[in-house]
Amino acid sequence: MFLPSDHSKTASTLPRNCSLSENDWEILAGLWHPVAFSGDIGHKPVAAKLLDVPLVIYRTSSGITVAKDLCVHRGTPLSLGWLKDDMIVCPMHALHYDAEGRCRLIPSVEDKNRPISERLRLITFQSVERYGIIWVCLLNDEPGIPVPEWPDLESDRFAADPDIKKMAIDEIWNCSASRHTENFNDAAHLSWVHADSFGNPEQPEVHEIEVDTSIPYVLKRERQLAEKTLGQERLSHFTAELTLPFSSALVEKVGNGNLGYAIYDAACPMSASETRIFQIIWSGFPDSYPHSHVQLWEQVNREDIALVSRQSPEEVPLDVREEIHIPADAVSLAYRKAMKELGLGAPRFVT
Fold first, then answer.
1. Residue 155 and residue 82: Cα distance in Å, rounded?
2. Those residues with Cβ within 8 angstroms of residue 99's Cβ, 6 or more apart along the chain or in another chain
3. Which of 222, 206, 227 is nearest to 296 (CA)?
4. Between helices 177-184 and 330-341, what is the axis angle to 10°?
5. I want to staple 92 with a disulfide (CB 3.0 to 4.6 A). Which of 76, 158, 194, 215 is the partner?
6. What are 194-249's pLDDT values in tens digits?
7. How far apart are CA 247 and CA 243, in angstroms?
8. Is the C-alpha dihedral spanning 333, 270, 154, 99 positive or negative?
9. Pick from 137, 133, 125, 134: nearest CA to 28
10. Whole-number pLDDT of residue 27
11. Which of 125, 158, 157, 150 is closest to 266 using CA atoms?
């Protein structure tokens, strides 16, 4: 019912009821994570969640602001409010906050010239817009890993080419972001889990995978995949990248090096067991249709989540002795090693 009378002695930087260990939360909070598609932020505040922290996202003439979803006056969710005069307005007492989170108006104060306390300022976070996605870092330090480099999504050629179609998918999965990311980069499951969409059980072999980790925090590899896509079978050659902690790109190039197909996947760890997936799909095939690819990847996602949500433990084990590995696990093992080197998965108790 009440917080302690001297809460300063008990306050923690962790969000209340945090589902992550303090160590993992501190490390992940210092990295970039996707929280929304830019196009979804319009004339109303939008709620989101990252690492158990409730967020409000709003757009003013200055751009995007991401803040903790709480009015510092009485703790009301600002995502229930509205935008007025280029400011976000609290729905309970109508305090107005500008793009920097500073309170500019308290309607209940009779003397409008009375100074407003500097303490009436929202808790705001670093944010950038890239690839039509809003990325957020919860800590003030410079993130140790940049937003993933996906140059195709910033190319003028793709924006101007009428044969290239872009689609977006936004879903919430009941699994950890690490399990989702590892599954997205797992070549051995494709023939079986996705037999009804694009997999080919008759050719389940995975060509030997060589993982290039020369780029800091990016795992690169090339692979061939016998697949069925939109009713046609073909042997595809893909280049893939996994940018820590939870962003992946799978790009197919055809004949002359032009884009055949690509899917960009960015996972937001809402909590330890709830993940929001942002996917951007490019198709360079002139005879394909956007709705066909959206339907295909929605089916692929359903096939994945049916199993990924039931993996045990929910967390990806960073101690390689916890699970048994097969030759096709090269990317998975490299991913786990890289996450461990970031300091994730440290023991909670030291004896």
1. 35
2. 60, 61, 62, 63, 65, 86, 87
3. 227
4. 140
5. 76
6. 888 877 777 777 776 667 776 656 666 665 554 555 455 555 567 888 999 999 99
7. 5
8. negative
9. 137
10. 96
11. 150
